[in-house]
Amino acid sequence: MKTGRPKALLILTAAEEEKLLLIARRPKTSQRAALRARIVLACAEEASNQKVARRVGTSAMTVGKWRSRFVPGRLEALGDMPRSGPPRTVTDKQVEAVITKTLETKPKAATHWSTRSLARETGLSHDTISRIWQSFGLQPHRQDNFKLSTDPFFVEKVRDIVGLYMSPPARALVLCVDEKSQCQALERSQPLRPLRPGQPERATHAYHRHGTTSLFAALDIATGKVIGRCHARHRQQEFLRFLDQIDRSVPKGRDVHLVLDNYGPHKTPKVAAWFKKRPRYHLHFTPTSASWLNQVERWFAKITDQRIRRDSFSSLPALVTAINEYIHVNNQDPVPFVWAAS
């Protein structure tokens, strides 16, 4: 009677079992690691590799492999073994030198290192420099922009506006108001080349200007609906006319909270007098250099990307018509933005 090769006795400690269960159930665990954890957990309960294989959906050979590895090596043995290959030609010291030089020095007469300039400096190949940079997430060729607000009441204003987004007052409207100035009616000098398989839509870089318009918009954060109107200019007079339009559009008898930036026409004496006559309006100004707090700015980016930037307009009225059409379609099936920041 054949009994087969004797199997290594696999007994788990409480800590090992807890760790293996965590590895097996965690959503971000790789499938290979989760399978190995399930195999070891099943082997602790079942001596037969065949039964364990059927239980976890793999082969008996795989079960035997990880059973035999786990018993002497425990949890550390569940990782991948070092693979064969040629010996390393770049030492840790050389890698450290490349990273240090990239982060702490600059080449002569230049603002940043390139792979080839750093390769000449270190004696390594530019491909090696590229691999090191990629491994450590270094991108000397890129530069991002930032701007810090110097508003002395920055924290208080941010909390005020984010509080409106996260928990608006009962039965009150919250409208984000702003102007998108200088919307240009650009007509491409050649017709657009349409989208084709393997080729994106193409537009010539040359264009004719047909004037500009300023888009005034108020975004209802609860519904995503937009009150919008185009004006030739964006002065105090146009802002007052837009406020009149808002007043006609919102329900009577309800408080209205307006989120505004610090643009001059928002704070003139005539505008202040307009609000003084209408006490149901409450103003919330964003901190200086923090227009990102105003949700209508995100909507401006959306209309620019989806309707304005890639089209060709033969006249200024054509641009205004396109903007009004976009607002009309938006309000037929509006979707509010979800404020995700804490």
Short characterization:
With 342 residues, this protein is of the alpha/beta class. The chain has 12 helices and 5 strands. The protein has helices at 14-25, 31-45, 49-56, 60-73, 92-104, 115-122, 126-135, 154-166, 236-249, 269-276, 295-308, 316-332; strands at residues 173-188, 207-220, 226-231, 256-260, 281-285.
Kindly name the structural category: alpha/beta
Q: Overall mean pLDDT score?
A: 87
Task: Give the H and E element order.
Answer: HHHHHHHHEEEHEHEHH
Poorly predicted ranges: none
Q: Can you list the strand order of the major beta sheet?
A: 3-2-1-4-5
- Architecture per CATH nomenclature, i.e. the level-2 architecture of the largest domain: 2-Layer Sandwich
The radius of gyration computed from the alpha-carbon positions, rounded to a whole number of angstroms, is: 32 Å
Q: What is the total number of structural domains?
A: 3
Tell the overall outline.
extended
The count of helical stretches stands at 12
Q: How is the topology of this model organized?
A:
Blueprint: H1 14-25, H2 31-45, H3 49-56, H4 60-73, H5 92-104, H6 115-122, H7 126-135, H8 154-166, E1 173-188, E2 207-220, E3 226-231, H9 236-249, E4 256-260, H10 269-276, E5 281-285, H11 295-308, H12 316-332
Parallel strand pairs: 1-4, 4-5
Antiparallel strand pairs: 1-2, 2-3
Give your account of this protein's structure.
This protein has 3 domains: 14-78; 92-135, Orthogonal Bundle (Arc Repressor Mutant, subunit A); 154-193 and 203-332, Nucleotidyltransferase, domain 5, CATH 3.30.420.10. Strands 3-2-1-4-5 form a 5-stranded mixed beta sheet, sandwiched between helices. It is built from 12 helices and 5 strands. Strand 4 (256-260), helix 10 (269-276) and strand 5 form a beta-alpha-beta unit. The protein has helices at 14-25, 31-45, 49-56, 60-73, 92-104, 115-122, 126-135, 154-166, 236-249, 269-276, 295-308, 316-332; strands at residues 173-188, 207-220, 226-231, 256-260, 281-285. It is α/β, with parallel strands linked by helices and 342 residues long. The longest helix is centred in the last third of the chain and has 17 residues, at 316-332.
